[in-house]
Amino acid sequence: MEPILSLVNFSEKSTVKIALVGNPNSGKSTLFNALTGLNQRTGNFPGVTVDKKVGTARLNDSVVASFIDLPGTYSLYPKSLDERVAFDVLCNEENEEHPDLTIIVADASNLKRNLFLVSQVIDLKIPVILALNMMDMVEREGDIIDLVRLSERLGVKVVAISARSKQGLDDLKKAILQPLPVPSYDFIDIKKIAPEIIERMKTVVKVKSDFMAFQMANNLEDLNSEFRSKRSDKIHDSLNTLLIDRNKLQAMESVERYKVINRIVEDCITRKSAVQSRSFSHKLDGILTHRIWGYLIFLTILFFIFQTIFFLAAFPMEWIETMFVTLSDWATKTLPPGELSSLLVSGILAGLSGVVVFVPQIALLFAFIAILEDTGYMARVSFIMDKLLRKFGLNGRSVIPLISGVACAVPAIMSARTISNWKERIITIMVTPLMSCSARLPVYTLLISLVIPPDQRLGFFNYQGLILMSLYLIGFIAAIGAALVMKWILSAKEKSYFIMELPVYRTPQWRTVGLTILDKVKMFLWDAGKIIVAISIILWFLSSHAPGNRFEEIEKDYPQKISSQGLSPDQLNSAIASKKLEASYAGILGKAIEPAIRPLGFDWKIGIALVTSFAAREVFVGTMATIYSVGDADNTQSIQDKMRSEINPATGLPKFSMAVGFSLLIFYAFAMQCMSTLAIVYRETKKIKWPLIQFFYMSALAYLASLMVYNLLK
Amino acid sequence: MHTILNMKVKLKNLSQLEVGQSAVIDSFTDKLMALKLLEMGCTPGEIVKLDRVAPLGDPIAISVSGYMLSLRKDEASTILVSTVKQKI
Hints:
Chain A is α/β, with parallel strands linked by helices. Chain A has a 7-stranded mixed sheet, with helices on both faces.
């Protein structure tokens, strides 16, 4: 054993900054959740769209730890965005997230590959603890890991934990507060591989280890831009006479690392039985990736998810609606009539109810997606779908963005980052918004229930549910169709990869699922919510105000004009309200676009909703609510009934006929009406052209499809 | 053809193995692919087993370094393997 040269001790500090690193599927996030619980929040690393999860936990009476959960990576080569963030946080002392201590989480049941990242972090020579996770699984399989020897060989403190069953967490907390050795010896002698590079690097940048110097020289283009801009000239000057074959050096480093790792694994693990332990996972794979059962099970799961969401979410949604109706009634009665009460009821409350009513659906969808990911099933779906999706210019990993797109295109597009191939990733990003997201769901729900009676059944199935499922299917077909077109148009920049771990199946963790739901719902309520409420208020203004004194004229003239028709006071009020809306700014806007949308069967009221929902689709329902409630705010009859009872003056039939309803449904299925998605596409592609292309191709598709549907059903 | 202990061993590529068959990784034919594979624990001398083939014939799943990895056939074909066990 090498002599320990230096120790760090955190027990005297009041806060310790700790970074969690580890491979994907190592249980890193489980540990983060177990340690921090509800004391966590999600943000962004400055300048990039990588999720930054931070949280706190108390270590003892005087010391609090602030944790940062770095993205899961297999290595420290800063090739992908996620790896770059992890690399920069660990290596760059100027990074404000640079930790006092790094905890590496490694899956003990998959030690060999996990030790690769461990060895790289050790060679950075920063304070490190190795948390050996899933020790319960290792024990169940009958293997024995000699922790003392492992700790000696690695030169770091090793703590055995089982993050899922929360075992060993106290040991881990105690270990943080004990004096810790700073790794002092080289895991591999990187100087042997690239002596001159390291020597020269060390003359121009201050680094803690040879490996850090090697990594920086070898991955100069991929370093954090701020860090690079300060130093790259100096580095270039010092390295420019050297011929560096980066790929060769990296390959040599990898091989060297695994040589040492193999010796350590052989030394520290006593295996009871060489094979057969993972038989359950293998058997399950036999069914779930079977050429018939595999696809059938996948389709069944999707079908089950949609049916569940449609029915299960309906109950809480009704409660929420009732609550808001009661609240509006109460506010109307209690507050003195006037601008303020009108703004509160028709603007703010109407907008809020349009946001909150989504929460049950979003929670359920993200729950299902979290479960599918957590169990390891999603990786199998990628496995069985890769060849099929590749034909359409996509990748097996596109399954995750496409399915997540059913919940929300924003996180879905972010998850496309795991696709390393540029072309496949761009295509995935471009077509994912065609998948029907949860923001469309309320629009669908409202329109379907308007045009299809609720008690209609086709055999065993609810007709409304079937229409809903077809809309999702149409979205999927449009997505792969668009992908196929783009596959022909775009030229490939590099080879496509599909090198992916198939993790062992595990039971889903309700804690993880619960925290995911909480996180996504919070994000939705805040991110989408503020836009929707803001737009609701703008809309309230537009629809309750008019240029000049148009309103006054209507109120003056109208009663006289129609007094001869013998209308009741109620009918009169309603007629005035509708006339006022037509005269308002919103009416003017809606009428301005009416000629363009009339071929689709839409009138100016729908026109207003189309204009406002270009900010976000779900605004449609809120807009409809505002449009139909403005003018008679004391009548809070549900929006659906109001729309249903509206009569088309030209035909004398209900305005929301089958043709109009389906034309609108198709329009909403295809149109790009989400500012957040366009913003995220810009951030992910770093080019303005991609969101623009996306906006125009989807809008054109929506218009044409809608035109066709309306004329076929008219 | 490689010569190991005077025995002539014919190298295959990984995608030519049959389901359930094991082999030892010898070398790589694609430099960039090799970097990714090395990082994931596919190092020369390591034993690999072809576990299963996806329903549509591609990709495949292999056992390597104690876990299961999925990769496409054309990626697997850049890994040269020998089916005779080498002494390490």
